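User: quick one, fold this
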Amino acid sequence: MNPCFLYVGTNVEVIRYYDQIVLDVVGEPLLVANNYLSAIQQMNQLGHGKQFFLLYEKNDPSTDAIALSNFSIAHHIILVTDGLSLEEKNIYLSAGVKNSISPDAGRDVFLDIIYFSEKILRKQQEKADAVNNPSNNFTYRLPRGKRIFDIVFSSIVILLLFPVWMIIALAIRLESKGSIVYKSKRIGTNYKMFDFLKFRSMYVNADKKLKSYTSLNQYQSGQQGAIEAKETREQKKKAKADDMGKIFVSDDEIISETEYLQRQQMSPKSTFLKLERDPRVTRVGRILRKYSLDELPQLFNVLKGDMSIVGNRPLPLYEAELLTSDEAIERFMAPAGITGLWQVEKRGDSGKLSAKERIELDVKYARNYSPLFDLKILFKTFTAFVQKGDV
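Assistant:
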């Protein structure tokens, strides 16, 4: 579908500025509507074959929310604003706004809007094709014997360690306020997303302390760690307007979306994130991590069927998104597990595990999986139970 930008508002200077950019980017002038009723009327008149991007001029949040509710969820609504408070962000997100841009946003911002929209449409089409053509949908299926073992093993361990669970929960609550168990979205087998469970080992609001410690990332080279991103005034405004409060959480890191994208520009090859001697970890958390006790809640993931006892580590969304190349995608065609090959061969201690080595071990497991191989990994897990490094 052809992209079509429609500005809803009355700011003449912004309209003229955007019109020049839109004409350059899509080859068609910017459409303008004074209010949402006029915008809906124009879209109905143009009919099908157009992909509408609604550039909605920010006014009063409460009034805007009522107006925005009249648009279809299929429309890509972008708020034009210099900035938003947290309360305003929540209002506009609930009203269907998917992004925000600055009034002086440049050509690259409009190109990004089109690019990411086309990317989403492609994924939706691929998903629809997979549903309509099951024969072309190559997916991994967990063997029945492995699933039975997972259920029996996890059930026994949960029952045997129940007193330990109670002690850990009490220790976490006594040291710091916050939830005892936290959930984070992870990508496992066949790129399936699920809620991943762990005992909380960091202080509350750990994400706010991240910038001071990025040099501790194990997977970041020294040269790349010394690079400071030099943002232009336009990029800073874009970051401020686009940041709608998204936070990424991995095994060892909590990072904002804006900062992650900046880091990827500096270090595109550094896929995995891990901090060495992370100062945001609580005292109880260090003990839990040292003995891998923070992983215990994942036994419920195993019971549910999200994971297996042995397999490749499920990844945060932002890490999984980068592993779509031919040499990496194979790691997702295997069980997602609590423990796996790279955990027992190298545990991030004396010999730091590079991102390339980790992917190679994951692919090796996917290609060589067998019940005997699982038993060997499980046996080695007990010998690697206590990590040598404080990570």
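User: anything notable?
Assistant: Residues 221-249, 386-391 have pLDDT under 50 and may be disordered.
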